[in-house]
Amino acid sequence: MKKVLLNEDRRLEVVEASPPVTPPGGVLVSMKAAAICRTDLKMVQSGQKDLSLPRILGHEGVGEITGSHNPSFKIGTMVAIYPGIFCGKCEQCRMGVTAKCEKIKIFGFNKDGFFRSIIPFPEEQLSSLVPFPQGVDPERAVLAEPLSCCLSAVDKFRYVKKERALIIGAGAVGSIFAALLKMEGWKEIILADKNRERLSRELPEGVEVIDTSKSSLLESLKDKGVDLIIPACPDGLNWPFWEIMNPGGCVSFFSGNRKGNELLPIDMNAVHYKELTLAGSYGCNIGDFRSALNILVEGKIDITFFQFYRIPVEGIPDGMGVLSRQEIKKVIINRF
User: Fold this and answer.
1) Which residue in 24, 91, 110, 272 has its CB near the most CB atoms, within 10 A?
2) How high is the pLDDT of residue 257?
3) How many helices (H) and strands (E) does the chain have?
4) In this predicted model, what pLDDT tens digit does every residue of 139-179 receive, in sequence order?
5) Do both 43 and 80 map to the same domain?
6) Strand 277-280 to strand 245-253: parallel, antiparallel, or no bridges (unpaired)?
7) DSSP class of 14
8) Are residues 169 and 132 in the same domain?
9) Is the pLDDT of residue 119 over 90?
């Protein structure tokens, strides 16, 4: 079997390894599809706060049970893999907030991830495996993780008026956010980016775009009020966004700032008098993940606009380069 290791010098290495054995009470998962996230690219380029090295990256993946010592998982079952390993016993887990588990470990961050041919799951990790029907395209199901992160962010604003939404950043996650808001019935969805090429492709139909290389968001939206803002890129809120918010509007702190960059001070009077809701969002809970997988399996969301760049597992270094150059929005590993 093959695995792709990020070494301590942040160099990617393709390694041949012996296949793992099925753990007692656990299963083996042979990978069928994985995806490279821009967070994976960030880890290679500059690291990440939860990353420990050396590490097998990858936190978006689906596979097939090919070895089982557990009656709950039969050989041949297809599973999507929730990226967190959670205890299920702490107060946060009992509340369903598994992303805040007191003992949380994250595949591809501080636990070896999905960029390998076969993954052993001991019995205590089986709660991270979510079955889905045979016949569902693994390349569709592999988007459960990014979609669940988008769901988690949007669900924090259940009572917002679904009129006009602004998504900042037209990468893969920005496109998924646009598809999710379209599915949820938003009347107007605006996607902004300084890269004109990314605004011209791989977007859901009917999305309005703003090229911020030509004009600022404040200039472009000065005559429009916005009900929801989602930054799907670093530094996406580093401007006086509150000036264009409608009363009762919502702002997701989905993306943070680049290291060393400071946010502008927020006008608390504007937040107060407009009754704005500001909420952070990092990762997803197991409930979000199951909901996202169900949405994809049942075809409730249109993702046909994606033009996947497909590679074998040993092509991951090449896929990182393609993603870095912004030649494509989503890189899929479909051969292991």
Assistant:
1) 110
2) 87
3) 10, 18
4) 999 999 999 999 999 999 999 999 999 999 999 999 999 99
5) yes
6) parallel
7) E
8) no
9) yes
Q: Enter the DSSP assignment of 131.
A: E
Specify whether the CB–CB gap between 313 and 33 falls below 8 A. Answer: no
What confidence tens digit (pLDDT) does each residue in 295-324 have? 999 999 999 999 999 999 999 999 999 999
Range of the domain at 269: 156-280
Please determine, for residue 236, whether its predicted confidence score (pLDDT) is greater than 90. Answer: yes
Which two three-digit tokens encode residue 189? 């969805």
Judge if 6 and 139 occupy the same domain.
yes
SS3 assignment, position 58: coil
Q: How far apart are CA 205 and CA 302, in angstroms?
A: 10
Helix axes 172-183, 144-154, angle to 10 degrees: 60
Asked whether residue 136 falls in the same domain as residue 194, the answer is: no
Cβ atoms within 10 A of the Cβ of 47, count? 14
Cβ 63 vs Cβ 29: under 8 Å: yes
Q: Are 56 and 4 in contact (CB under 8 A)?
A: yes
pLDDT value at position 264?
84
Whether residue 45 is predicted with pLDDT greater than 90 in this model: the reply is yes
